[in-house]
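Minutes, project check-in
Item: structure for the 89-residue chain
Input as provided by the requester:
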Amino acid sequence: MITERNFVSISDLRDKTSSVIKDVNVFGKKIVLSQNKPIWVFLSIAEYNHMQKLSFEKEQATSKDIAAYTKSSHGDDGVEAFSFLESLK
């Protein structure tokens, strides 16, 4: 939940950096504002790790996927992209 305590002005960040960093650890995130618009988000390690757990798992392309893609309208470009990705394994 984002509350008023999650926001900090860019001038407060400049003048009270240590305090802002401590607050990030307490509140999980700080949204830095410049001219009343959000420009940055600082996350605690715990908040960042939590967000990573919520992200989608990577999907591996199978040879069946590659074959279907090469038969599609994407043609040779797709083959080259998949070949490159396969070489990274």
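Outcome recorded: Residues 4-54 form a domain with the YefM-like fold fold (CATH 3.40.1620.10).
No further action items on this chain.
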